[in-house]
Each structure stands twice: as structure tokens, then as C-alpha cells.
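Mods, move this if it's the wrong board.
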Amino acid sequence: MSGEKNGKKDAKKARPKAASGSAGKDAAGKRSSTKNLLPSGLEKLPKKAYEAELERLQAELVEMQAWLKETGNRLVVVFEGRDAAGKGSAIKRITQYLNPRFARVVALPAPTEVHKTQWYFQRYVEHLPAAGEIVIFDRSWYNRAGVERVMGFCTTDEYRRFLHQAPIFERLLVEDGIMLRKYWFSVSDEEQERRFRSRHDDPMRRWKLSPMDLESINRWEAYSRAKDEMFIHTDIPEAPWYTVESEDKKRSRINVISHLLSTVPWEKLEPPTFEIPERPEGANYERPPREEFKYVPDVASELL
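Not the wrong board. C-alpha cells:
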């Protein structure tokens, strides 16, 4: 992969710019109000169109999961990318309607002292899927090629060993029948900083912001070089990297879900039919008096 020009962008596609005045032009050459433009210059997806397409794709994800469960296939999806690139919100939309008994999100904390004595991939292996399961890694073994490399949490030998072993490890997974998909969420430095500030100002999302996130601002170019090196060594035919442009989170969600669905050879199955029986008449059961139980106060009635 080529390096990032001046280390400032993951993706160097020219950003759409608004023409002087209050409007710009979209891809079709139509005038677009600046009210419909994101800070990046991209035109916002219409809310109704986004929600309708997302719902359609989520319905297909449910059908894909049914196929995986029926056939016993296994799917691993790796989500990597810059901090605040939109990985978490995309995962949330993917899993929203899936059966949680057969779909898991793995977001591991920092390795313990015991983990550090194990083979590096060992703690990830135990989370791999069984037949019919989907496992989504919200960050993965690629921590070693990213944050551990940039922040000095691993030695140079450990880093080089990882770049050598990761393709071997992934080929073993694919050879064993696991479908492995790897996505890199790409966001510009300006958009990342805007999202950091938005999180800082929002009490409901401030927990998402960490000192490590803020340090990534100072080490943007180091992360860029680490990502480029990671792609060079681990973008293999059996498990290629797919880059998701994520300046607009809504666009990235639609794009990554659509792509994932297109790469899994699932088929729509006839849903099982159930006959709901008539409820039988009661026998001699009498419910105890309500006063004998502790009920949650009906504070909702105060809203009426």
C-alpha cells in the first residue's frame, strides 16, 4: 500500500467542495445546498433513503444468519481503523436484529500479564466461532500492528513476528473453513478530531474518549505508517483488507453491510412455520393477592 501523503489522510480521494456561495454540485452536477453537506463536504444521505436501505440490508443479514445456522458455516468479521472511525456504530447496526445466541461481538481489553506469556494469537482463538456462528471482532489481533507498535507496547521482534505469523494464522482459519472478512475504516484527521470534540461535549458518549484516543492525534503519522506496513504484510488473497470510507458514518454503514452480504454465498431459506395452539382453559389455579408481591413503581404514569 502506498503511504499517506504528508501523513494526513487515510484516503486521498479528493473531497467534494462546495462552490462559492451557498451551494455546491453533487456527482451528477446538481446544485446542493450547504445545509445538506457534512463538514467533510460530502452530501448527506436523505434520512428516509438511509433508513429504508438500512432496514432492507438488516433484513438480509437476518436471512444470512439463518443460512449460516442451517449450513453450519462460520463467519469472522474483523473491524479495524482509526479511533472514532465508526466501527462501533457499524457493528451495532449489523447485530441489531441478529439472534445473539449465534452472533457475538468480541472487544477484548488490554492483555493481562498472563496473556503476555502466551502465544500472541491464543486469547483470540478461544473466541472463534462454532458451527453456525458469527463473531465480530471490534479490534482484533491487529492491535499488535497498530496501537502496540505505535505506543511501544511490544518489542520490534514481537512486531516482526506478528507480521510474519498473521498471514499464516489467517490462512489456517480459512483452510479450516472459516469465512474471514477484514475491514479497515478510514477517516480523515479533521473528521476524527471533530468526532473527538463531539464526544467530549456529550455526557452520554464521553466514556468513549480515552487518553489513548487523544494521544493518537499526536501520533497520526506514526499510525499511518503502521497501517501501511500492516497492509503490505497482511493483505493476502485468502483474507484481503477492504477499506471503508467513513467520513460519513451513514454511508459507511450501508457500504460495509452491503459488501459483507455480497461476499458471503448465503441463500434465502424458507422460514420455519409454526402453529400457535389455542390456549387451554384454566384449571384450579388462583393467583395470589397482588399485595403479597413487590412491584416496580409505575413512574411512567407520571408522564401522562
